[in-house]
Every structure is written in structure tokens, then in C-alpha cells.
Amino acid sequence: MFLPDNWQSVFIPEYAILELVVRGIILYFFILFMLRVLTRRTTGELTAMDLVFVLLLAEAASHAMGDFTTIGDGIVMLLVFMLCNYVVNQLTYHSKFFQKLFEHSPVQIIDSGKLNLKNMRRELLTKDELMSHLRENGIEDVNEVKKAFVEGDGNISFILFDKQNDQADVDKKKV
């Protein structure tokens, strides 16, 4: 009553192994491509809307993988995803081409206290959001920032002026 009558129906995959592998590879790279097309901030800092998008993407992918009823099918698919992830990590580590293909490069949004509005627009980053990030990092004024970047993982990094030397150089340029 508590145990299945046929243990094979629990563990033996219902789908052909090659079919599961091909489905897994196609879905892995399609999802990776979709995340690459999105702006950095979408993948780095999930808002409620982004989380819903990722969950719906995962739900759609699960149906595309097939409606598994055995643990064997699920294990094969998980192994395929792990292998794809390992291969992509190795390729991006060892090859600049694959690194550029699969990872976002940093985008500069502040240079010497001046906002780069074109790059902010490209990253869908509003001034209010940027100011929020500045405050979260204890920065009161954009003029304190020598450089700021939206990193490949969606986080924003700030390089501040050296209070004495760098700010004096900027003041000289203004004169």
C-alpha cells in the first residue's frame, strides 16, 4: 500500500536517453541565450516582475523537457544541465570568444562624476535607481564617483575619487 508495485516505473526512464540529452542541451542553450539577450540588471537583481519571468521560463522549459513521471528522466535531464553548465564555464574561462558570447562585459555609467545617459538608457537604469545604489553604498553625491559600472552580473560597482588627489584634478579641469 505504501510502496509501488513496480519499482522500474519509478527509476527507469520512459523517454529515450538520447532524446532527453538533446532536449536538455537545446533548452539549456536557449535559456542561456534568452538570459544573455536580457539586460544585465534583469539577471543580476531580480525584481518581482523578473522573478515571475524566470519562473514562467522554467515552467515552459519543464513542459518542453517532457512531462516526466520517472525519477530516471529527471536525473538524466539534471545531469545534462550540469554537464552543459560545466562545459560553458570551462569555455568561458579558457576562451575570450566564449566569454564574450556568454557573459556581459561591464558598462560604464559614470565617468568623473558625470552620468553616461546613453549607457544608462541601454541598461534601463533610471537616475532614481542609480541614486538609490549610490545611497546604499554610502555615497551622497554623484560627484564623489570617479567611475561606476554595471557589471556583468547586474551589480553596480563604484570607484570613488581619492579625496585629495583625484578631486583636485577634476577641479583643475573645470577651471
Instruction: Write down the overall geometry.
Output: elongated
Q: Secondary-structure element order, as H and E?
A: HHHHHHEEHHEEH
- The overall pLDDT average reads 81
Distance between the termini: 86 Å
With strands numbered from the N-terminus, the spatial order across the biggest sheet is 2-1-3-4
Counting helices, strands and paired strands, the structural category is alpha+beta
Largest sheet: 4 strands, antiparallel
Helices and strands, with pairings:
Elements: H1 8-11, H2 17-37, H3 40-44, H4 48-65, H5 71-94, H6 96-102, E1 107-111, E2 114-115, H7 117-122, H8 127-136, E3 145-150, E4 156-160, H9 165-174
Antiparallel strand pairs: 1-2, 1-3, 3-4
Helix pairs in contact: 2-4, 2-5, 5-6
Structure description:
The chain has 175 residues and is an alpha+beta fold. The chain folds into two domains: 8-102; 107-174, CRO Repressor. The protein has nine helices and four strands; from the N terminus they run ααααααββααββα. The chain has a four-stranded antiparallel sheet with strand order 2-1-3-4.
